[in-house]
Give the backbone structure.
Amino acid sequence: MTVVAFKPPNEDAGAWRYDELQLLVGIFAAHAARGDASDWAVDTTEAGDPQFYLLGERPAQDCVLSISRLGRDYVLEDGEGAMIAENHNLTPISDKAVALSLASRKASMIARIGLVWIAMRHHYEEKIEPLFAEPMEMLTHFFPQLAAFV
């Protein structure tokens, strides 16, 4: 007896469905707005399962994130291939991928605030604090004619 394997109806394993692709392009839009991604691409795994790639800045265009549909499961991986999330539904995976963009935005904002604080403190210590330390010396420095009266 010969057994013939049939594909499940209404499902092409090597391509993304329209609704899936819309969610994936939404992930790209979130990362592109942040500046983390410049392009996206689709391809297939060795087994023929579809993959979606977020590509980084040009000209290198390294992989930032990838989402694969392996059978009925969706897998989210970072640019180095480490698995971040896995689920039977694409919506939580897309939410997690968008959250990764927002998390890097928060860390960037905290770093910028820290740098501004350090710069302001340095400016105060170097430029403004000496004005209050020796007021008479500063007065004679800016107005040497007053030094004769002091």
Q: What stands out?
A: The chain is about 45% helix and 20% strand.
